[in-house]
Structures are given as structure tokens and as C-alpha cells.
Amino acid sequence: MRNYDKLIFELSIPNRVGYSLPPLEVDDCDIFDLIPDHLQRKTESYLPEVSENEVIRHFVNLSNKNYGVDTGFYPLGSCTMKYNPKVNEDMASLAKFTSVHPLQDESLSQGALGLMYQLSESLAEITGMAKVSLSPFAGAHGELTGLMIMKSYHELRGDLKRTKVICPDSAHGTNPASAAVAGFDIVEIKSNPDGTVNLEALKSALNDEIAGIMLTNPNTLGIFEKDIKEITRLVHDAGGLLYYDGANLNAIMGIARPGDMGFDIIHLNLHKTFSTPHGGGGPGSGPVGVCDRLVEFLPVPEVIKENDCYKLNYDKPYSIGRLGNFYGNFSIFVRAYTYILTMGYDGLKFVSEMAVLNANYLQKMLKDDYLLPIENICKHEFVLSGLKDKSTGVSTLDVAKALLDYGFHSPTIYFPLIVDQAMMIEPTETESIEMLNSFVEALKEIAKIAKTDPEYLKHAPHHTIVRRLDEVTAARTPILRWTKE
Amino acid sequence: MNHKYIPHTESNIKEMLEKIGISHVSDLFKEIPEEVKLKRNYNLTRSLSELEVTKIIRELGSVNYGTDDLICFLGAGSYDHYIPSTVNHITSRNEFYTAYTPYQPEVAQGTLQYIFEYQTMITDLTGYDVSNASMYDGATSCAEAMMMTVSQTKKNKVLVASLVHPHTIAVLQTYAHFRNVEIVIINEKNGLLDLADLETKLDQDVASLIVSNPNFYGNIDDYSQAVTLIHNNKSLLVMVVNPLSLPLIKTPGEIGADIACGDGQPLGMSLSFGGPYLGFLTTNKMLMRKMPGRICGQTKDVDGKRAFVLTLQAREQHIRREKANSNICSNQSLNALAATVYMSTLGKQGMKEVAIQNVKKANYALNKICTLPHFSKVYEAPIFNEFVVKSNVSYDVVKEALLKANMMCGLHLGDYNELLKDHILFCVTEKRTKAEIDQLVAVLGGLK
Asked: What is the tens place of the pLDDT at every residue in B125-137?
């Protein structure tokens, strides 16, 4: 069914149904007696009318047009596309978790609250922070939360001049965007060629208007900031706070903790480091951890433990406030906590060791054919600068598309912005040497074809369900929904 | 060590280290300064087997009470609806849930097409042209809608109806504080928007008015006068809606609101202690380029085949960085899939039937309860599936009596508004049977 090309609306036949409901039972009355005519919908709806079998076949056929971690290797740099354990899914779908109402009495939700408490305690231990809030829904939401905390801290001290946040030019796009949403102006500083913080640039950017700096360590090129202690000293001496983007935590679990490096605020991505699925774009979860002096600013509610009972605490006068209708993406917490128990202290350290081993192995195996701008031991990921032989005219985009024909997902491309023709590769610890070798083979073959038949690569992919798309027309004359002809 | 999620054997590790040209795994971390290295093990358990882990997690779950244990008459933003089996079967497809954002559209047509279908269905329900691919939840989608109106009008005062869900108002206040947006609350009158208060507070600095339909008390309001007032003032109207009500009641598009937003949890998502749910956001073409988040569009591939792709990306953080409309990156895509499968399964007829059953069962419950000596009706407005009753018995007594009979009481509005002590917000969905409602009425009727 590779060629299946129907929209669900195109399967619709008037009066066909795919559902059943019990009879109404209660005394029937005219709906117009309950909702007056002028408050009722008049526009016709075009929701589909299909049988249950058609619903299932339609979406199963769509799923067959998708590539996930369970399909094959997904070395999308910065996204940590590791295997999503199946027991996590089983635990998250237990009725004793899925059927719990968020506003029911706390005494009826002790298991859910207890799980949240234990997860946040575990994350605090893993990161070396004083306290962790699970409320943020995703990484970028965690960043926003962290920056709101940063702003509240300075505001409470009456230090109102601090309206700027430093972001290195290697930072993920969400960093400056989150800072802007939190009401900060952004100061971008140039990085060293290996993406590490340029200490001179940092020194000259620091002053009494700087609220803080956003960093990730290891950085986006997979390089550990050796001078991290010096950086934290400089920023703290200048009255600023340090924000840690946890996108790259998979490199250092059991080895070094952001809290011990001197970071004041961190966010984590449970959908990266802690093996919860990426869901085709979400739901993720972006817990935020802080050091002691910032605990009072964490969002409400917080889960606390009193006399062996778990409670939701709203009594936090300096809190940044509420972040969502309830307490975050709870079923993701169940998955992450299941994972942490499955790995344990020993397994989590092994995760980071093997993630880093895999990245260094791939880096070594690929550097003869692809340009490696930074010759160094990397951490969990590394960045290549396209093909080594620049004479072929084959771009990183072409390589990425060609990889799809070999049955691999492509790496993250054209990010970070500081590397020309960037290919950001993160294998994760859950891939075997055999898988890495076949990926290397494919990339080497592509490098060979680039020399002999570059045109073939410029038109790749050739064997996917659809080929290269007209993105320009899509943006110029947007068709954003199906309409009945 | 050996671990089931990590395939490396000792000889694999040895071979790989040799290729890299180092002798020990610790050499991979040697540039990390000693002073920041962790010199001990995490204070966590050792790695546990599947049997051990599932025992711990099941034990945690066992002390929860869910809707299998207690008949649920509680709503207030999280609703106990029927979820067809199709939903979980499709969202459990590995190809869907283990993928990420469709950055490589050639191998993500499954995700992209369901987003396109989701956009079509949610715009059909709300009455608009444009939807994004999803937001985190109803409250954050409302906050994003608020920021859209501030950006579009270049004004920074936002009026919020007091009967928007109080948690959503709290989230609006969090976002507004950091963006220097002023929030002014518009009072209610008889459980509906107080138009006189709106007129008093409407001035030239107002970017928008945010209202909810049905509102927090379950009442359906007629916003036709509000929309005229707002538009005459060159401000925008944002409506928070329950999507499940829209096959039946007047859509935000028909009312003339400029943006609709809300929580998609009623569309096939379990209660799950509050998440993950689905924020939705729809609008008309005029505000399309102010929209936050991913948007999927239809296009063709080089062979002329219909295909789908993320589009209008110049709005987004990975292109515009600090100038982006929003910082959102990951969204709630799998929940959008759940909603799409839900709406496909229920279909045009089923969606309307569910909406009608909610209205009729809730009205049946309301009328029965109000015949009881200790309970009285508070508002006269039409309702969808929630309603407020005033109790002469204290809320805690009502709650305990229901709990004893394995029922979950509605929300105590006194926790949100001192004037509403012992006022209860009940919710009755299509899932409640006549026998369950009668049982609720019987327990309430037996209170002294």
C-alpha cells in the first residue's frame, strides 16, 4: 500500500458510521428547548463519515509512510533519538494512571503525586540541583520557565537594570526565542571555532545589565567546556545567573553534573535523555531545576511531602506563577521514572559512556570522507562540515536526502549555524556497532557517488514514498486544510 | 556492564576504543576538569529488571483512585469521555510515536498528513481557515493567542472575562507579567459576561478580549454584542472553546471571534492526571502569519505527487530566533493524532450525537438535583455538560457522602471564589448512564 494517497475526507460516504454510543436513556426532549436556535451552529460540517475498518486502514497506511526510531537509525543531532523502551509505554497506559482526574482530592491521587515527587527528586540528584519542577511541557517551555525565574530573581532584588541575556551564536534557536518571550533583550556573542565560549567575548559582554547567560555543556558541537568553572565565576562575579540547556545531558550522566559546574537554572528534556518518545513532534516534557537560592521562584503548584503524604503546594509568594492548566505532561513522567528505575545509577552512567563511545567511533570512521572541523574527542555528538571534497557541488542537503534512500534518517542539517554545511550526528547509546558500520558504509558510498555522479545525489531521494517537495509554492500559496471541491 | 537497552559487549567496546585510538572508556572524558567530575555514584537504585520495575510502578498506581473506581462527576477542564478503541491502537503505532518533528518530509508523510487532516478538522469545528499543528494545552494556547493579539494590534492591554477557567487566567497572568501586558478582568453577571463592565473598561489601549464558551460555570453565552463592541473598538476577540460542543453550538467563527483556542482533551485523550493534553489554536487568513508553532501545508513532489510539508516557517524560532512569533518547538503532535483519529471514528454524526448527549444528560441531572430540598439552580443560561448548583449542605459533607457511594463529587467553587461557598460545579458527559445520574441524585437527596 505504498501508493496509498487518500485523505480521510476523500473516503467519506454520507451516513456511514464508525462509532457506537449507548441509547440516550434519559427523557428525550427537543434540543432547541435546551439550546436556543440562535446559539446553535448553522455551518455544515465536513468531518468524515467512515467505518471503523476504514479509519484503522487509513491511519495504518499513513503510519507506513513514516520513519521512527523503531524503524531504523535516527541520528538526529541534538534530539537524542534513543530507543523508547516498551515497558515505559505499558506503565504509562495503566488505567491506574490514565483514569486519574487532576482535580480530585489529593488523598485519592497519592500514587500519581508520589511518582512526581520521586521523579523530581531523582532528576535533582542526576543534575545536582536543589529542586526540580516538572510543570513545563517541553524543552522550550522549560527554557521560558527558567528565564522567568531568572527575571524574577533580579526583580525581587530590585536589580531592574538586568534586561539582557547572553546567547552564544552556536545556541539552539529556542534559546534566544525563549529569552525574548520572557521579556529579555538578547546579546549574541561569538563562539570559538569549536563552539566553546570565547572568554574574551564573554568578558566584554558582561556588565550590570546582563541578567544571565544560556549555555549547553557539552555544547552544540559536542565539545565539553573545559573552562566551565572560569565561565561560571565570571558570570557570577558580574551578578548574572547561568542557565543550562539540558539538550545534551545524555553525554555526562554519572560523570559530571550541571549543578556542580555552577549552573543556577537548568531544563531537561525527558523525551531526549530519559527515553520518552518524541511522538512525531511531542508531547515532550521539560522539567526545570534550580539551585537553592532560586527555589522560591519555581512555578506553582509544587509537589511536597508532609508526614508521608504528598500534597500540591500553592503557597509560594515569589513563584513565577502557573504554567499550564494542570501539572505538566504526567504520562511522560511515568515513562521517565520507569526508565530511571530500569537504568539505575550504574545504567545511567553506562548510557553516557556508550553514547560518547558511539559518537567518537562514528566521528573517526567518517572523517576521511567528510570534513571534520574540530579534531577532538567529542561527547555524545559531533558536527561535520559536509563532504570533504568540495569540488563535487554536492551539498549537505543532497547527502541527507541520499541517506533516506539507504534506509536511514538523516542527521540534523545546517545547524549549528556556525558550521558551514553542518551535519550534526548523534548516534545515542542504543545503537550497535553493526548499525554504525552500515551507516558509515552508506555515507562512504554517497561520498564515492558524489565524485562519479553528483547529479544523481542532487535529485535524491529516489526511492522514498515521495521525493523532494516544492516548499516554495507551499509557502507562497499556502493550502493549510482540505476543502470540499 | 550489560544492559538490555545498550547493545555493547566487552569486545565491541574494545574494538571501538582501538579504532578511536584510546585505551579506556574514561579517556573519552579526560578533558572534563577533575573539580566538576562526580566522584561518587548517583544516590539512586541499581539498575532494575523489568519485573522489579513494573512491581514498583504498579504499586504506586494501586493507591490512585481512577474513573474505574469512582463514577466521575468532576470536570472543570478535564473530562471523562468515551474514547473509542481505535484511538489507542493508532497512537500506539511505533512509526508514529517514535518519530520526531517531520524535518525530512520524504520519510514523514504519515505525520504530515495527519497534521493536515487535524488542521482541517479543527478548523471545521471552530469555523476558521488556519490552524497550527498543536500547542501544549488549552491554557498555553490561550496565552499564545493573547500574544498574537498584542503583536497584531501593537496594544498591550488585554481584557479577560472572569469566567475563563481560573487556571487559564493564572497562566495568562504569568505570560503577561513578563511581557509587560496589562490584564484587566471583566466581571460576570448572572453567570455570563457583564457587557456593562466590558463597555466601561474598553478603551483604545485594548488589544483584545478573551472569553470562554461554555464558560467556567458551564454556561453558554451569546457573545454577539461583545463582538460588535470589541470590533468597533478595533480590538480582537479571542474565544476559549470546548471543541466537543462545537458540532452543536455556535462556533467562534460564526460569532465573529478572531481567534479560537482551547484544550482538545475531550477529543479522545484520557484524564492522565492532567496531561499530556492538546492545545489548539485556529484563526483566519488575516492573522495567519502571526500564528505560533508548526503549520503543515499541501504541496507536490518533483514527480507531481500530492505531498505535505511544514510551511510558513519564517515565523518560527529555528529561522527567526529572537524575532520569532513564539519559542515553541516540540508540541503535542501525538495528541493531535489522537484527536484526528477520535474525530474520524466519531465522524460527522457521532460528534454531533456526543454533543447532544452531553447537553441532554447534563440537563437531566441539573433538573433532578434542583428538585432536591438542599440544592438549587444558580444560573438560567443554557449549558453544555457542566452546571453550578448551590448546596445548603457543606461541600465536604456532600463530597464524603458521594465518595462513600463510589462517586466523585464536582468541583467546589468556593475554592476559587469566596462568594461561592458550597456552590458545586458538576459535570455530566455522555459516559454517565441514567442509573449513575439517578444514583447521584439519590445520594444528594439523602443528605440531611
From this structure: 999 999 999 999 9
